Amino acid sequence: MYTSKIFTVLTGFPTWATIITVGLVSTFYTFLGGMKAVVWTDFFQSLVMIAGLLAIAIQGAIRAGGLEKVWQVNYDWGRIQFFDFNPDPTQRHSFWSLIVGASVGWMSTYGVNQASVQRYSALSTLHKAKSAVLLNIIGVIILVTVTCLAGIVMFAYYVTKGCDPWKGGIVANPNQLIPHFVMEVLGYPGLPGLFISCLFSGALSTMSSCLNALSAVTWEDILKPYVGNRSESYQTWVTRILVLVYGAAGVGFAFMAQTLGGTVLQASLSFTGAASGPVLGIFLLAGVFPWANWIGCVSGGLIGLALPLWISFGAYSMPAGKTHLLFPTQNCTATAITVGTTLATTTTTAVYELSAVERLYTVSYLWYPSIGAATAVIVGLIVSFATGPMSIDDVDPKYLIPLFDRIFCCLPGRFRRTLRCNLEFENPEDIKAEKDLQMIIEPSKIPQEKEKFTENKTYDEIPPPPYTPATDGELFAMTEKNSIICENQNIPSECIHSIRL
């Protein structure tokens, strides 16, 4: 939706046509290529996004007088505030909302979001999955830093001009500031096109990732338990049809989102935060508290979803809050200032005392994931104990998270054992290795040519991957049960492989 509005500002192309085009393109290549297409396109699109933002920041800094002047201007106008420790949750941005509230949001994104977990599961080892997360953190730091740099550069540029386009009435809303800035600063052949590519890269990568994740989780968790195991071609076509369905739904929601006010970033983080918080809460409820039952998880998840969504919808019914920040308007024309004043007066209402419910609507959008997660855990525990908690002995420790061992790793072992209710947790690497050793090739996947498996063949002559030959140590470590299975199914011992998921 944001891309369509910006594209309309830059080129005059209709908003509805841009929404349909982005939806069709992302749905098309997700339909054809699946996960592999999404990952590779996301990689190249991220490079385009960073390149476009760097072009804005570099050229804008040059026009504004250099980075040193950019920083000084923003500091003088109160835009550089690293340590605002105001505990008021209704303040839009503070140290606590950005560090604590945003951290919970990022934890949900990287820990339980289907689009992220699906990528971790597609890697061959746990070590590679951890490396992918760490590399992604570096990429996000670079992207957010360049984005913030472009923002302060743009503000310094308009301070030097003495006219803020939004307050001066030149643009209708804050979402149009960047394209207006691009048309002023990047007046060179190809550079505005680079910015448009940056916008479309962000839109396409986000939508394709969501389409792929939604189709996969719908098949695996909703459809597969009812239709049973089917052929690969059947699963492929079902997930492709689901991609088309979700792609059409995404285009429809984009048309609905055109009516939302405020910045696109706030709208996006508000609704995604409200939805991702309870998912994180359910995960923590099940992984940290062995007493939680399924009734508590379902009840906590539903209420944890309803509460932040209610707050986020209610926030859009509230008048825009006033800001203490100043904006440069001294060089704006009288007509522009009049238009800006008219826009401001038509979008605000008289000041009045807020009720308790209305004050809840003013909570910063960065706290929505925390509200959803905390509600899911608290309600889930209350309902679980009210309906009969599960016994600790009924829960396999490998499905629990050794939270206190991670947080209080320096405490003596007896104290940590008490905190974890005397449960013994296995190392994740050991659980993964045990799973690897217990997996064998299905009989249908074994080559039928018996001459390939003679007594004098070596392991090097076993058919190549996707099935990696097991080492001598792994073969000796195979359990007696697996050996019996191999003998009953006439599987040659050379066929036993350690499949790396």
From TrEMBL:
One annotated Gene Ontology cellular component of this protein:
plasma membrane
Q: Which domain of life is it from?
A: Eukaryota
GO MF term (any one):
transmembrane transporter activity
Q: List UniProt keywords, sorted A-Z.
A: Cell membrane, Ion transport, Membrane, Sodium, Sodium transport, Transmembrane, Transmembrane helix, Transport
Give the InterPro entries listed for this entry: Na/Glc_symporter_sf, Na/solute_symporter, Sodium:Solute_Symporter_SSF
Q: What membrane topology term does the record carry?
A: Multi-pass membrane protein
Please tell me where this protein is predominantly located: membrane
As for subcellular location, the record says: Cell membrane
Entries under Pfam families matching the protein: SSF (PF00474)
Q: Any transmembrane segments, and where?
A: 6-31, 43-62, 94-112, 133-159, 194-217, 237-257, 269-289, 294-316, 365-388
What's an example GO BP annotation here?
sodium ion transport
Extract the PANTHER family matched here: LD47995P-RELATED, SODIUM-COUPLED MONOCARBOXYLATE TRANSPORTER
What family is it from? Belongs to the sodium:solute symporter (SSF) (TC 2.A.21) family.
Fetch the NCBIfam families from UniProt. Answer: sss
What is the protein name stated in its UniProt record? Sodium-coupled monocarboxylate transporter 1
